[in-house]
Inverse folding.
């Protein structure tokens, strides 16, 4: 898939490997935004039976499933007559594997629309049927794992990794870093879990967001624990590949030796978008205000992306960098999170020094 949408933006994606490249008029330039999103994060339900205390979406057994017809409408909306479709979708929930039309959702995404599907799951609900559909159509699977909560044990996680490897399914671990898990995450970077996780492609650290059932008390607030974790990022002893979500990028840029060319700042509303099971479109799944939420039953996605979301982009440009004017990495970063002040970690480490 090759796109050259307009002056200042070029994009190449390789479906077989998941490799994506983006540049401006030449390779030295970073585009401001995409004229059409490269990725869509789609919640196909808010249904889950796990009842996790930290679920940011309040998912439970009363949750709603997105109808298959609505899902196809979303994919159609995400396909532009000139720019084509989004390159990939990240499917979530709730628990996506419990959706009654999960297999058809994955199939139609790839076969009918030419979009690469990926999804995140707790890892408890694999069947021979959804494993086969995953292997045939998906780019990758993410397993949400947390040793402190009601989830898979290390031995169970290890066995799951081996199963997915045998099935030739690329799988990552999604590990939420919070006040209560930060020390354990440091141990992971120090190689203590390598034996259990060796079958997985990588570990992706996600920043804890205080929304839904997730309480603000578990947001990262310890300068010493955070600094120890960041030191381990600079000198990891693990053999695992590691990555981070966009919410952790500002503190990575500011305090570690990570190569800036290997990090993307927050792409929500600029290169990616979120659609929930009620067809509400917002910059990301953690958007906590209706001010930047728009429904596909009232507006076309084309109108939302190219016109309505401009107010969100203006807010990010004008407000989110107010505390960052003196930062040497400001050109590579969009500043603080527009939705949660608790995710602004740069001052937490700076004040501790």
């Amino acid at each position: 898939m090759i796109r050259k949408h307009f002056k200042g933006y070029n994009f190449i994606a390789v479906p077989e490997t998941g490799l994506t490249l983006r540049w401006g008029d030449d390779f030295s330039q970073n585009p401001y935004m995409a004229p059409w999103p490269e990725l869509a994060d789609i919640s196909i339900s808010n249904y889950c039976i796990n009842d996790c205390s930290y679920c940011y979406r309040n998912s439970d057994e009363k949750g709603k499933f997105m109808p298959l017809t609505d899902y196809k409408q979303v994919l159609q909306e995400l396909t532009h007559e000139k720019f084509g479709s989004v390159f990939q979708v990240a499917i979530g929930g709730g628990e996506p594997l419990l959706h009654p039309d999960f297999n058809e959702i994955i199939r139609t995404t790839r076969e009918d629309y030419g979009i690469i599907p990926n999804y995140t799951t707790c890892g408890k609900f694999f069947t021979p049927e959804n494993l086969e559909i995953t292997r045939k159509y998906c780019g990758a699977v993410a397993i949400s794992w947390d040793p402190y909560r009601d989830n898979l044990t290390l031995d169970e996680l290890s066995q799951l990794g081996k199963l997915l490897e045998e099935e030739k399914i690329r799988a990552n671990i999604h590990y939420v870093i919070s006040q209560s898990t930060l020390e354990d995450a440091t141990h992971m970077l120090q190689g203590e879990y390598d034996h259990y996780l060796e079958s997985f492609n990588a570990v992706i650290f996600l920043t804890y967001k205080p929304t839904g059932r997730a309480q603000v008390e578990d947001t990262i607030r310890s300068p010493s624990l955070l600094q120890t974790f960041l030191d381990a990022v600079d000198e990891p002893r693990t053999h695992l590949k590691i990555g981070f979500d966009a919410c952790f990028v500002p503190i990575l840029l500011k305090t570690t030796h990570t190569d800036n060319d290997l990090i993307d700042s927050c792409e929500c509303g600029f290169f990616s978008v979120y659609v929930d099971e009620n067809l509400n479109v917002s910059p990301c799944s953690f958007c906590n205000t209706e001010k930047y939420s728009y429904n596909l039953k009232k507006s076309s996605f084309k109108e939302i992306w190219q016109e309505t979301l401009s107010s969100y982009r203006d807010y990010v440009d004008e407000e989110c960098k107010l505390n960052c004017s003196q930062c040497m990495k400001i050109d590579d970063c969009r500043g603080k999170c527009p939705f949660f002040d608790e995710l602004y970690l740069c001052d937490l480490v700076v004040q501790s020094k």
